[in-house]
Amino acid sequence: MTNTQETVAMAPKLTVRETTADQVPPIPDGEKARKYIESEGRYAEGNMHSAAGHYQKLVLHVRTGEFYFYCDDWRVRRDPNKDDRFPPSEGVWAPFHWLKVADILFWTIDSHNVVVERPFLTVEEGNAFAREVAPLAEALLLNLQPVPGTDTYDWSAEAASAGMDIQAACSRHQYPPKGRRPELVNMHEAVSVLPQLVQDRWATLDDKHLDEEAEHLNRSGLHRNPAIAEDLGFDPKAHRASILGTRAWLYEHRLKAAAGRPMQSAAAFLAEHPALVTADTTNAELEIVPERARVAAEAEGILLLSNTQYAARDRREQLRKEVLDELATYGEARAAAEAAVKKNRSAVYARLYRAFSWEERYEGKPAVSDTDLGKSAHISRQAVAKLREQLDETAADEETLNA
């Protein structure tokens, strides 16, 4: 079923965590870095200090509400082939569009020994800066939108604007906050301005296709619907102009349309009702599967999501592939078995013929009886006798030819 995950609660209350001196590396030595640059690399001791880069950050844990000053250890060289850094790279504040809220967000502070406006911060200065910026981080948290039926958050214009203000505060110029950006539009605002933006099919899209629709609206919703921006009083081509909260709105819209009914993708429903589609379903039968599935789903009080026709076709192809995979498996096993039978048959006959050639025991009786040979070879006594006769006839023919 769709939407069976535990729904995420509203974002937690912000807590500013104090960073202690033992949690940060020493500040790079600016004099050593200067000597390294001036000596064109000959002053090797200054290499590490010169390469420290912007290692100071503000970090926000979205799930716990912790906000704090953080420093990478600039003395440790990272393997460029490994993505094991902290904070995780997916949380870096460099949004080109607003689709997912990472569990850990971080902003790089534009501090450096060569930056006159903002040299590297001491741990005391870093903690003070985190406390100063905390109201913006709190505004970001409070304005995140839970995505119904999931354990994730979505952005809002207010949350994204707060994140932009934190980024501005982290610059060397420490720009003041601007508040809500007019070029960022919440999905519910876009719908109120342009009701025809809503499409009927959204109510029955599965999670995958609903996420794709959310991304499409976020990336190009304003570009394709300039009337929204015009009505709200800004240029739809403005830098970073976007519709935000699209995923949360779409999931909420679908949930309301379901009117309390559990939702399930057509693919999952067909998999749970194997009689609806089999590998042997004909094209004509495939055409009526959507109606049969709809009736069956309504009888169970389930709202089917996604295109049932496509799901039925994919289901039949999947089942046919399974049949062909089984055919290949059994065919390989049959070929191997027949090869083994041929090999073992030749080995059995060779040993029978050797036993036939042994001297008789007494009174014309063979060294080993046909019954005993049959038991050992797992064939009948009559089959052994027939092989012996054939061998005797061949020998007699050869004697006649040699006479």
Report what the structure shows.
The protein is 48% helix and 9% strand. The protein has 403 residues and is of the alpha/beta class. The strands form 4 sheets. A 4-stranded mixed sheet has the order 1-3-2-4. Strand 5 and strand 6 (153-154) form a beta hairpin. Helix 6 (207-224) crosses helix 7 and helix 6 (207-224) crosses helix 8.
Using only CA atoms, what is the Rg? Answer: 38 Å
Strand order, sheet with most strands: 1-3-2-4
Summing up helix and strand content along with how strands pair, one would put the structural category as alpha/beta
What is the typical, i.e. mean, pLDDT?
88
Tell me roughly what share of residues is in helical segments.
40-55%
Number of separate strands: 10
Give short descriptive properties of this protein.
single chain, 403 residues, alpha/beta, two-stranded antiparallel ribbon, 14 helices
Fold topology:
Elements: E1 15-16, H1 30-38, H2 47-50, E2 56-61, E3 66-71, E4 104-108, H3 123-142, E5 145-146, E6 153-154, H4 157-170, E7 184-186, H5 187-193, H6 207-224, H7 226-232, E8 242-244, H8 246-258, E9 263-265, H9 266-272, H10 283-287, H11 289-299, E10 303-305, H12 308-356, H13 370-377, H14 381-402
Parallel strand pairs: 1-3, 7-8, 9-10
Antiparallel strand pairs: 2-3, 2-4, 5-6
Q: Can you summarize this structure?
A:
The protein is an alpha/beta fold. It has 14 helices and 10 strands.
